[in-house]
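Following up on my earlier thread - several people asked me to post the actual chain instead of describing it. Fair enough. Here it is, all 501 residues.
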Amino acid sequence: MQGFKQRNYAVVCVLLNLTLNLLKNKPMRLFYLACAMLSISFAMAQQVTLDSKAYQALKQTNGLNGVEVLAPAASGVNQHYSGAQVQKTGLCDCLIPLDSTFQLAMLPNDDNYSNSIQLPFDFSFYGTNYDSLYINNNGNISFLQPYFTFTANAFPDPSFNMISPFWADVDTRSANGGNVWYKMNPHSLVIVWDHVGYFSMMEDKLNTFQLIISDGLDTLIPNGNNVSFCYGDMQWTTGAASIGVNGFGGSPATVGVNIGNGINYFQVGQFDAPGVAFDGPYSANDGVDFLDGQEIYFDLANTNSNIPPLVMSSGICDTIDVYTGDTLKSLNAVDFSIGISTPEIGQILTTTITCDEPTALTYLTNSVSNEFTGFDLTFDATGVQPGLYHIQIETTDNGTPAQTVMKSIPIRVVYDANLAGINDLDVAPIQVFPNPTSETVQINGLQAGDQLELVDASGRLIQAFKATNTVELLTLPQVGFFILKCSSNTKPQTVFKLQRI
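Reply from S.P.:
Thanks for posting it. Predicted structure:
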């Protein structure tokens, strides 16, 4: 923390004025001067302990400037997760479910950090190997020292050496403010900020996000990468001490990597608002809901400062189903979006998109900035034979050396008799389309009385109702991922993963 505490300025000024007046009385000059200087020294040397009541009071009133903040005495934490073991939802599955193998990184706190954690492997951070690190409560990890800074800076920044899946003012002290957990594997470390709240002890909005680092030998991260960012439901960006109001506005949260030398860094974006608006890493601040379901991989294992482009597909990391039939052509197509970002300032991307069924694919290009391009894609299965198809995305930046990334999106075309006008719904399997969807999905093959349950990606029940018709429409309440469970008296339970984009 830099500068002086505001209250100390007033104390110092009063004492200086008193000293000047007293100096007019020359016989008492030295005595009063010594007393005044001692008082000024005391006013300037205030110390508070991190996360103490005094620290919290000063933080709440923006009075930490100039105060020396001391770390509390280190205490070991050996508490393992004992809550309900949430199963993978079958969505993108990048969030590792918490179980008893996860250990609490630190007790509930505001702005604190873990003890130094030893790694059973060497992690390469732009070519420098580390075998220990700190987990910082405020959404990042660091290697040289822990950080309690709660207001994020944009990258590059000379002051911080960190990897930050979401650098913001996390506060886990409230009853439902979440916790930070980690799991050590032979070749990777998984850290989950699970349903964490924001300062000051706010829990009306919660964020869930995950960081994985590895030595490149763990299959949790695709080959050729050693870091993964993964996001669940993201609901806030800014704490009150960073000029946030109800979790938004003020100083934005920062997502990215920064080694501190001004050369090796990249930024995914800065976020200060709700919604899905995103225009790249270095343009206007963005909507935090853009991160929902995202999984971002990258490689920091060498000294090359040029990180390859990031292909962000809102969790589309497995097969997309689309149905074809003779009627209802509008339901034969699936729409989805892809965003491609270059993490470095000023780079230009060159992207090609192809499909092994060229007539089925169309797309629109939205060039938002040099560093970010969005693509709105449509795969229309009308007249396409059932089978498995692929959309290939290849993007190259103009860094030195240039880096190329390729992504393949499988599309499975399924013939749907219901779309062909065959009304034998009593024997048809339950089917949902389109998926992904903009808002509403149609459920076919139901029977009156079938039970339908919609839950979000964290397992929370959103809606439950019984079917009254063979076809039902279901509105997904917001952008993100959901699970639909269909229970029937005559058919096995069917579970669908749904995505609203």
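The two ends are 41 Å apart (CA to CA). That should answer part of your original question.
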